[in-house]
Amino acid sequence: MLDFIKKNNVKISGEGEQAIIFAAGFGCDQTMWRYVAPQFEKEYRVILFDYVGAGKSDYSAYQSEKYKTLEGYAQDVVEMCKELNLKEVIYVGHSVGATIGMLASLQDPALFKQLIMLGPSPCYINDLPSYKGGFEREDLDGLFEMMELNYIGWANYLSKVVMKNLDRPELAAELEGSFCSTDPLCAKEFARATFLSDYRHVLQQVTVSTCILQCEDDSIAPKEVGIYMNEHIKESAIFFMEATGHCPHVSQPEETTQLIFTCLANI
User: Is 133 exposed, middle or buried (0-12, 13-18, 19+ CB in 10 A)?
Assistant: First the structure.
């Protein structure tokens, strides 16, 4: 277990018995949950972790073959739950972290009690007229090219698109710093695994109770995406947030915390 805790930089806190896992989005680590996760420590066993290749994880454990798809990250989540002897886990995932949790629940549904998805997306590429993912394929190819040619410039540009809230530039600056602290090779492969994936076909296979938190004016996961997921996951509910941008747990942690508690009350 110690090796696994080191591998994913697992941190455990809280006074409760019910486990609640907080999973970060692309290019981020567990510190992004610092305003939200502590609010659950009185009632829950709070578990934070970093994906291999991000944060303070063990970078030597990174394998391109495993992590070229999101299933590799989902496998780590399942293994983490089993190593920690967790049962009926509540999993709170941001962005691609939500997709990873969904895939983990498909690998082993019995491990999970509830999925809480913050700004999720099963597919980021438009498939008009039936699906609006938010990006054209050529837009993503341009971002990947920018990552190759000017990684720092890419981080500066994308952080502003993701965070919004331009009147609070310190938020985008923090996200940019998070992008820049991630190993570029890992980030590039994680970006492709994230933005080129299409998991729309598995939504109807999800059996775990699901709660979707959808932000206003989210360029990464537009409102149409949240509505689409709610319509295609059998046991799901959706809450529309006043928070704008793609990182409400950083920009509006109070609203995010309140809505997570609302989801927990409606299991």
Answer: buried
pTM of the predicted model, to two decimals?
0.95
Looking at the annotation, which residues are catalytic? Answer: 95, 218, 246
Contacts of 103 (CB under 8 A, 6+ apart): 70, 71, 73, 74, 199, 202
41 burial type by CB count under 10 A (0-12 exposed, 13-18 middle, 19+ buried): middle
Contacts of 170 (CB under 8 A, 6+ apart): none
CA distances in angstroms from 15 to 18, 38, 101, listed in the order given: 9, 11, 24
- Residue matched to tokens 């729309």: 200
pLDDT in tens, 99-130: 999 999 999 999 999 999 999 999 999 999 99
CA distances in angstroms from 72 to 107, 130, 160, 186, listed in the order given: 11, 29, 28, 13
Domain at 2-265: CATH code: 3.40.50.1820
Tell me how far apart the terminal alpha carbons of the chain are, to the nearest angstrom.
30
Residue 237 and residue 262 in contact, taking contact as beta carbons nearer than 8 Å: no
* DSSP letter assigned to residue 38: G
Q: How many CB atoms neighbour CB 109 within 10 A?
A: 12
